[in-house]
Design a protein that fits this description.
This protein is mainly α. The protein is built from eleven helices and four strands; from the N terminus they run H-H-H-E-H-E-H-H-H-H-H-E-H-E-H. It is globular. It is found in: Membrane.
Length: 311
């Protein structure tokens, strides 16, 4: 039954995250908020909501390795698996303006997480720092984009749902995310116990992959339809939110223990994959993430999973 609950948890998280995005976008449209603001706030939160609920539930239920492993594993998965798989389907153009700022922020957030984790835990004050930095990042991104294009307020699209329906979607998706996270974390812990696999391994692989499904599905469908609006910058933005938002909120609510294995190996691999991505997207101007680069990223993900289970 644990496997059924695990699959059910994945499905609930996937559909709940999708409903949250739809409801949030509709609500934002009613209030004449531009598509830029919606993308930076609602959509970013929607695709990272599974990570937030899973990490929070895991931390509160006494499974810190799943909580931290979920975020670290998701960030590795987003870059190596999601971008790699998408680039194999269709080469991705490099949006230089986004990468020049967003990648350094992602790398800075990752390094800051590593520094904070060196003492073996993430504390409330560190969570507050994460959240403040996330707010500053979002405010600066919106302000800078509005400065470059004064007509962004006219981009808001007509809402597909009424305000009551949008509110209902948000409420229903929030409940779905809560119950989906409970099912996923509970079943993952049971499977780990049955197979003698550590919660760290489960969090870094199975749970992390499950919470990355929204990004993977969105990117794969967009590549298939040749909709290039889904770019490398979207994945980088999701990774920024995972560290600053998910770990920030979770550690504010409850201090999280960070295992020595995550500090000495997984976090370093996350940093290495981030550097690899930067090297692969060079040159930033008119560059592309070609298929061979996608294959290299996929290989780095498979190698990571192999190392995690071997160790």
């Amino acid at each position: 039954m644990d496997y059924i609950y695990l699959l059910l948890g994945f499905i609930i998280l996937l559909y709940s995250g999708d409903l949250l995005v739809k409801g949030g976008v509709a609500l934002a449209s009613h209030f004449k908020i531009s598509t830029l603001v919606v993308g930076v706030t609602v959509v970013s939160f929607g695709t990272s909501a599974p990570e937030l609920f899973v990490s929070l539930d895991a931390a509160l239920s006494g499974s810190p390795d799943i909580s931290i492993g979920n975020v670290v594993g998701s960030n590795i998965s987003n870059i190596a698996l999601v971008l790699g798989f998408t680039a194999v389907l269709l080469p991705l153009p490099v949006r230089s303006n986004s990468i020049k700022f967003d990648w350094p922020v992602m790398m800075g957030a990752s390094l800051l997480f590593y520094i904070f984790a060196l003492n073996g835990k993430l504390q409330t004050i560190e969570g507050i720092v994460f959240v403040v930095l996330l707010i500053c990042f979002m405010v600066w991104t919106i302000w800078n984009s509005r400065r470059e294009n004064r007509n962004l307020s006219e981009e808001a699209k007509p809402a597909k749902q009424s305000i009551p329906v949008a509110v209902l979607l948000i409420a229903a998706s929030s409940l779905g995310l809560y119950f989906g996270a409970n099912l996923l974390v509970g079943s993952a812990k049971s499977i780990a116990i049955d197979f003698g696999v550590s919660e760290r391994v489960i969090g870094l692989t199975i749970v992390a992959f499950g919470t990355s499904v929204p990004e993977l599905a969105t990117s794969a469908v967009a590549a298939y339809k040749k909709e290039m609006d889904i770019s490398i910058g979207n994945i980088i933005g999701s990774n920024i939110f995972n560290i600053l938002g998910v770990l920030g909120v979770t550690s504010i609510i409850k201090n999280i223990r960070v295992s020595a294995e995550i500090i000495s190996f997984d976090a370093l691999y996350m940093l290495a994959v981030s550097v690899l991505l930067f090297l692969l997207i060079l040159p930033l101007k008119k560059g592309k993430l070609h298929r061979w680069k996608g294959i290299l990223l996929l290989a780095s993900y498979l190698f990571y999973v192999y190392l995690v289970f071997v160790k």
